Amino acid sequence: GTYPFGTYEGELLLKNQVLELHSPADALEQGVGIVPQEINVIDQLNVAENIVVGQWTGGNGNGRSRLVNMRRIKKQVAQFLHEFGITLDPGETVVRLTAAQKQLVMIARALYRRPSVLILDEPTSSLALNEINNLFEHLNELRSKGITCVFITHKLVEIFELTDHTTVLRDGEVTGEFEREDYNENDIITAMVGRKIENMFPNRESSPGTEEVLRVENLTIPHPTIANRNVVEDVNFNLYEGEILGLAGLVGSGRSEIVNAIVGRMESTGDIYVNGRQVQIHNPGGAKRVGIGLITEDRKKDGLLPNLEIRSNITVQDMDSFTSFGIINSAKEKTLAQKQIETFNIKTPSVEQMVVNLSGGNQQKVILAKVLMPNPKILLMDEPTRGIDIGAKNEIYKLMLSLVKEGISIIMISSELPELLGMCDRFVVLAEGRVADEFPKSEASEHRVMQAATLARSESIVNEV
Predict the structure, then answer these.
(1) For 404, what's the count of Cα atoms within 13 Å in the CB-facing half-sphere?
(2) Which of 162, 193, 224 is the last residue of a domain?
(3) Rounded to two decimals, what is the model's pTM?
(4) What are phi and psi for residue 265, nearest 5 degrees?
(5) pLDDT digits (tens, 9 = 90+) for 368-398
(6) Residue 113 buriedness (CB in 10 A; 0-12 / 13-18 / 19+)
(7) Domain total for the chain?
(8) Residue 312 belongs to what domain range?
(9) How far apart are CA 436 and CA 451, in angstroms?
(10) Is 201 inside any structural domain?
(11) Can you list the alpha helix ranges (DSSP code H) found in 406-442?
């Protein structure tokens, strides 16, 4: 219903009946629920309120009273969450939740309406492995109850693990349809990107250096809303020239908080050294001055200026290069932006195209082009391939390897373990805000990462028992 009936060609049919949907509310009434890719919750409300918003009933549960019985609602939501194995506190204010927990709130909100068709658009993009497995269990249970799920994903592993039938779209056209018994990885990839990808993770043509470019000592980050609680505590690690260091761990382990604290976006204590010199970084501008750039986790919220064209998005962090006495040299700005577009292979007809009209992969390359405009020597990449297709991921990987070949050092955060294992030279694993393990690529495995990432949680459960 986001595109109302009559604004498109063709028909939507549900159980052989034509659907005339004029709004998302119409879709819900017809039994079609959706979990959008972008987080869409009301931060000021609690979990229960977010789940039942739009369908509150009165104090006696029959919908006649205008008074909302929050005790009843919380109890009903708690029972529902327990039924689906979703570990959320119904009374917790949503602003305090992580991105992964907010994603779970949206999934719960869609399921609460008991739809006959559930559409999930990249629902695992913010979830940890255990949460993904939990979600898949729920979806398989829904399937056994006769509920149809439309699962939109770029991840091949999810296609093979979960789906019965796959339709591949590229540039708005169907390029392949596959039944489960006919699934073939190479065929699906070719349908997705229009070409064969021989090696998902390109071969490394350079090795990390021995010179330390970044050292973090005793980093502690207080919880933004809960007094006397830290989200990161006493973390220490270093980064070498031309190295890709993987920060691994479950969602909520403190990975994103660490890179945001390094660039001054979060309050923290501890010491940061760049090229052996202690630095005080209070904001992203200060980070830029010492040669550190950050690609944030949420590109649309923190990385892009969606109402501006590509040119402005690319050049906004390095305006000194084309500004003199407060006057912008538009021709020079356009030339610099065009150079970045060519360097990063951004597919666009013009530097003046609105960035909101680009694909997710090209938006991510715009952010990379922007962050690299001031020529940082240290690049922090938080979920750099989230929500982009396999072809775009492969391009990002190649760009990363070209950067480290030039001596740039990278800290990479990803919820996709195969991606971390394929790209990183060394790993620091976090568990509940502390370093749980550290090891080189030669000793890395999914088992070792997950064992360390879940260690603190397992110990806390044992202690509670």
Answers:
(1) 28
(2) 193
(3) 0.72
(4) -90, -10
(5) 999 998 999 999 999 998 878 788 888 899 9
(6) middle
(7) 2
(8) 213-464
(9) 9
(10) no
(11) 417-423
